[in-house]
Amino acid sequence: MAEDHVPCDSNDHASNMKGGNDSLVVCFGEMLIDFVPTVAKVSLAEAPAFKKAPGGAPANVAVGISKLGGSSAFMGKVGDDEFGYMLSDVLKQYNVDNSGVRFDSTARTALAFVTLKDDGEREFLFYRHPSADMLLQESELDINLLEQARIFHYGSISLISEPCRSSQFAAMRIAKKSGSILSYDPNLRLALWPSAEAAREGIMGIWDQADVIKISEEEITFLTGCDDHNDDKVVLDNLFHPNLKLLIVTEGSKGCRYYTKEFKGRVPGVKVKPVDTTGAGRCFCWWDIEQPSF
């Protein structure tokens, strides 16, 4: 859909894709409180109690990059409440620049209940109708921070509703014009979208703006409508756009495969005993962003 594209002249994107800061990664999107059961492998209804933890994919990436010794910042909105200030403080504790965080007095910080059930399936329950992260205004963007970004990283959850949707478009446009590398992790959460079709259109609507994209096998199936997510032709024909520098497909315990214009390959996984795969994609994402090869 035309309205889903960020209006940007490709000539504005500097050929060497450098920003005002050669190392800063600015992560845009949601930051929330995850509530996880105090015991493993139960449904949300069966959980005897929950413990809170900072969450939100873009915020997780920002913290992960800082843990690796990189320079990162988070840009988004939380509630003017105890949870919102707690999250902002957590960023600071991990040396993540929180100058791009805004506080909303009209909405609460988003909450998510998440568990890994005994059958291996994850179960999510979100409270955000609306939550503060959905209400970020374009006028609240820290333009100076965006212009400093070497890499601008984002997902698709901020695309679900206005005004945050337009704010993400504007942030992408500013970062790209400043020469930032655009990094996209769709992070499909179908339950948050009005419909599967809306999710597909929203996610693909900004697909051709990204320089780097990280997706899962499940997301390939959802976005392409093809059952064989291992088929290179399916991936390349449907998901590799002309301006893309790197497409990474995570394969769980098997590792990942990657595609560029010149070559493709696979990296095997490291064998570990999994406890909970929730957030594994974000961990992969911040490692990949911190180790750019271009």
UniProtKB/TrEMBL annotation:
Keywords: ATP-binding, Carbohydrate metabolism, Kinase, Nucleotide-binding, Transferase. InterPro entries: Carboh/pur_kinase_PfkB_CS, PfkB_Carbo_kinase, PfkB_dom, Ribo/fructo_kinase, Ribokinase-like. Its EC number is 2.7.1.4. GO terms for biological process: fructose metabolic process. Residues 24-281 form the Carbohydrate kinase PfkB domain. May play an important role in maintaining the flux of carbon towards starch formation. This is fructokinase. It comes from Salix viminalis.
